[in-house]
Write a structure and sequence with these properties.
globular, 288 residues, two-stranded antiparallel sheet, binds ligand CCH
Amino acid sequence: MSQPGDFEGVRKDIIAILKQKGYDDGSAGPVLVRLAWHASGTYCKESDTGGSNGAGMRYEAEGGDPANAGLQHARVFLEPVKDKHKWITYADLWTLAGVVAIKAMGGPDIQWKPGRTDFADDSRLPPRGRLPDASQASDHLRHIFYRMGFNDQEIVALSGAHNLGRCHVDRSGFEGPWVNNPTRFSNQYYKLLLKLKWKPKKWDGNFQYVAKPPGADEEDEDLMMLPTDYALIQDEAFRPWVERYAEDQDLFFSDFAKVFAKLIELGVYRDEDGIARADKMKAFKGSY
Ligand code: CCH
């Protein structure tokens, strides 16, 4: 058991669980980033519901949403950290783990603030269907991300997280990594989107794009893009941002740090001193 408020201790223990021999590409990092994103990405600006408060994925109604398939691995990886630091809320732990993982994989420093509260029961969970559907295109991306309060530039910057990790057929119905080194944060995703010849994958599974990595042999694993990834270069307002981030990794890192910090604050109400106030949060008071 550690001292309440010892976030440095929590950060160290998150770093210690990142290496996971035998799991995916040997790292829990990518799936932790996805956990932080799915915990936050249910936010609706208009009704001020959903978001990173509550840690609703602990309950079947949200955790069992097919959109969240596979994220139980991330939650299980974090259990020893929660066990050692019992005072931290799951909602804080999940968002902090995303931020720590990004930094440890070579990404930028992202501002993180504590104060999220866990729901005491499952009566305030956001409805299903608020997370994006990978088989759709740019109008769907705008519909989902504008609802959270993001603009076109922020949508493209956030999508750069697909530089990490991979798709799993048994989780999403898609398959493969986006880049050669999926445990190293960089702007490679944008470069490959523009540079490789993406072709529809020949299989019975979901429609997705594939390409061989540069200099690959026939037996090397294909790289992939989801229809929503490919939409970023088809859409005339998104594409210029893909081009800028492909050219300028520093710009991408700085924009990504800002937008990810905004993502994990969605649904968190803070007073003028920056203190989170659960009593002021609609999700804790009202109904949907
Ligand atoms: Fe994502 N993502 N994501 N994604 N995602 C998947 C995996 C990861 C979409 C669909 C999928 C963001 C945006 C989108 C990560 C971070 C972010 C998968 C494969 C699908 C499908 C899941 C599987 O099979 O395990 C769609 C659609 C969007 C629309 O924009 C954003 C935003 C972020 C973070 C900022 C990460 C990381 C992964 C890899 C997870 C892993 O387990 O390796």
